[in-house]
What does this fold into?
Amino acid sequence: MAKFLFKTVRTLIIVLVIVLGLAWAGTIYIHYPNPIQAIRLGLAAPSDTPTLMPADQLPASTTPQVWPVALAGSPGNVDWYGTQVPFSTFLTATHTNAFLIVRNGVITYEWYAKGITPDRRLPSYSVAKTVVAMATGELIKERKLKESDTFVSIFPEFKTGTKFDNITVGELIDMRGGVDVPDDYPTGPQGWGAPIAQMYATTDMTNFIQNHRGMAFTPGTQADYRSVDTQMMGMIIQRVSGMSLSDFVEQHFWNPIGAQYLATWNIDHKGGYEKGYCCFNAAARDYAKLGQLMLNGGSANGTQLIDSSWMKRMTTSVEPMSIGSKGDHWGYGAFVWHPYPDTNLMLGLHDQYVFMVPNTKTVIVKLSDNTQEVDEVETAKVLHTLALTGYLR
It folds into this structure.
């Protein structure tokens, strides 16, 4: 009996080793993280993902700027889906990790969930797209890039002889590229075969783009929110500048705005490409500095970092874009949302917001772990009201 058990256990161990070996080899073949890393990434809370993929670093500024603080008390009740609820209920319902209000360049409200500290790097998801827009404008200002340049003029190795070859920089930044990688985010492990999930997990972005050059529509004929457009734009920035996207942003924006903390940007592999459409990770106070940069017309610490003409491009809607789960539309252009005429918004999956209202000189940062279906429209109503009318009881 003991001999039989020993043989059975040995056989099971051998089978398990073979299965794991095949799984390991399979993930290498499809350019995914190894099985253990992939499982951890798939099951992690959004706020835990920055440490689960390789990343480049953006050091804190050599001249870090500390926000002045004049706390004005907690917001009172807010309108949440037509019902007045305590602000704390809103924070809890949307799984908020950090909430920050800056008025006139001063922090007036700052809140962190249990276990979250002010220096904690939290993921931006698509907030990163606006950072890519800033970098695009810098290259255009330096006359190293034009909106009429095509993707394949910079990456001739990706030419297909199809409509893909006609995609321009201007079309990419307005989500008019047409590449057939829709943002249909999957739920559960069964969804990891979706192209958007493949792009998120890939360890070889070049291989991903090489295998996803099919077109959903002719470039420039319509607008559809597709993260692949930003990814391609980030790759352009790296190729044209000769620097990694992280190094370029650190040099032109992160250091000059006086970032107080180290930031990271997840990459496909060491020496590869940043996942430019997402995966920028920073502390709430430094996200607020990016918002303040836009609020100040592209200026920080007496230096014009974003060209005034490009600021106009980023703060002007090109056309409405579908948002939320109820068929709503917001203005959109140059990787920036415009939910209201007086508002600019950097918006990311799982409830990440850098909400800017120039008329009241207000920046609101909300970083969250909201993995449930969320209506960005309702959250934007809350943030807009706080920005316009004040928030004290």
The chain has two domains: 2-42, 56-389. The chain has 13 helices and 16 strands. The CA atoms of residues 326 and 372 lie 15 Å apart.
